[in-house]
Specification:
The chain has about 160 residues and is α+β, with helices and mostly antiparallel strands. The chain has three helices and eight strands.
Amino acid sequence: MAALEIYLLEIIKMQFTILGPPVGKGRPRATIRNGKINVYTPGKTRSYEETVALLYLAAGGAKLIGPVRIRIDATFEMPMSWSMKKRKATDGAWCEKKPDHDNISKIISDSLNGVAYHDDSSIAFATATKRWGQDSSVVVTISELSLDDIVRLIGN
């Protein structure tokens, strides 16, 4: 009897790098003026979102259609105060430093709304990692996914 396996086929794959320390999504701010509430996005968040969108487009990114897969790999620069021995031992190790992975993922996925996809609700599969490294950066890999008739029969 043959076993049935379904595979996710990546149609279009795009990768780009954001140099500098990873930034988390800032919480919306609110002010009251003349009895009216004004809600706004913090300047640092808005600026980073614009940078991410521009880098995606500069790397040749196009608008993806359908379900999307996104991978976000954040690298945090090791402090200069660490000894060379500790830096060598920690290079590539998992990082527990702030910002949280979900805030990094949120700012990246929101940045690409209307640029890489119609809305971040199109993201069907997401992964995020945080590691220590020599330099700070965020590498974003994004691709379309399709389940249409991607079936492989495995022989007896």
